């Protein structure tokens, strides 16, 4: 069944949701305490050492106890991690090496991978996070927002949303090693028959990055009838995916075309007091520091209605006056400037691709497309219940709370 692509969703006449195509999803992580993540790894070690050196009421106050976690709560080790499982107050154990995560859209940070410190760590995500895995991360829906509906990453994402209700996290593969694509059964075969070319999970992810639009129910993913439009969208989506992975697959970091690259023209002070942008000379002011050229596409890039550069800066310039989260680097580290320049480049390139995405969506509007009803008629929908549940992936025992073993 084909129909004209509609702007909205609803019923069998609308475009499929991403939930129809990549059915297994996980809710965002909920740390429960801000101090377990940080832009730099050294801060996390300082916080751990301070907490481990205290006891009693002082330790509880620093820990930030919730109903889910306190210093007296044992917890199973996260999959793939060898950490202490007894209550922190009894046995902190050795410091776990932090892991790189994506803390909300386009913000790479560090996290202490200790299950005792995290209210809802989503172990099913950690279980499938490896060098082969990619994650589609839905952004919070905000009415009238024109930003992207989702992004992709090779890092473990926490799914944090700067505004709106957080979306879901969708692993591309249901098992470690890039095995068992997280696609609705029968979808790839149906699309291969329509487009006359192999359709992989990465093809579907690429198309989604290029063509998906936001909706209150989650990203809408129109599927074209024609092979040419599909191929064009997949090619554009692969470019967007390569940018967002930041060299995680090919080792090539994003670069602006024509040899342009942002430089620090005036040193960023130890405590910059805010961001400002001059579109005339493409200069970003970081306190008294100056960075240019910064394309307008980078400055204007928003997710869920929030400017990404503002959010990135606020998380690094604002620090609590008390508690473990106040422990951080003195001044403005050089590594932070390098990360800012990389982020500017990424956002500029993603912003520059927006007209091509909009042109693709305009061509989709009013064109013949595969609807939810078409997927239902082809036997692809409804999604089998088992496809919405995590796969059983254990080939070994995992340590549970208090050193016990659990078979999951």
Structural account:
The protein has 408 residues and is an alpha+beta fold. It has 2 domains: 2-253 and 369-406, no CATH class; 257-355, no CATH class. Helix content is 29%, strand content 15%. The strands form 7 sheets. The chain has a 4-stranded mixed sheet, with helices on one face. A 4-stranded antiparallel sheet has the order 12-15-14-13, with no helix packed on it. Strand 13 and strand 14 (283-286) form a beta hairpin. The longest helix is centred in the middle third of the chain and has 19 residues, at 227-245. The two termini are 41 Å apart. The mean pLDDT is 94.
Label this structure with key terms.
about 400 residues; alpha+beta; 2 domains; 12 helices; about 15% strand
Radius of gyration, Cα only, in angstroms?
A: 23 Å
Shape: globular
What's the domain count? Answer: 2
Whole-number mean pLDDT: 94
* DSSP helical segment count: 12
> Which stretches are poorly predicted, pLDDT < 50 over at least 5 residues?
none
Q: Termini, distance in Å? A: 41 Å
> What summary fits the major beta sheet?
4 strands, mixed
Task: Specify the structural class.
Answer: alpha+beta
DSSP E strands, number? 20
Query: What fraction, in percent, of the residue positions are helical?
Result: 25-40%
The percentage of residues in β strands lies in: 5-15%
- Taking strands numbered 1, 2, ... along the chain, how are they ordered across the largest sheet? 2-4-3-7
Could you write a compact summary of the structure shown?
The chain has helices at residues 18-21, 41-52, 56-63, 123-128, 187-195, 201-211, 227-245, 296-300, 308-317, 334-352, 354-364, 372-377, and strands spanning 2-4, 37-38, 99-102, 108-111, 135-138, 150-153, 156-157, 169-171, 173-175, 179-181, 223-224, 263-266, 275-278, 283-286, 289-292, 302-303, 306-307, 368-370, 398-399, 405-406.
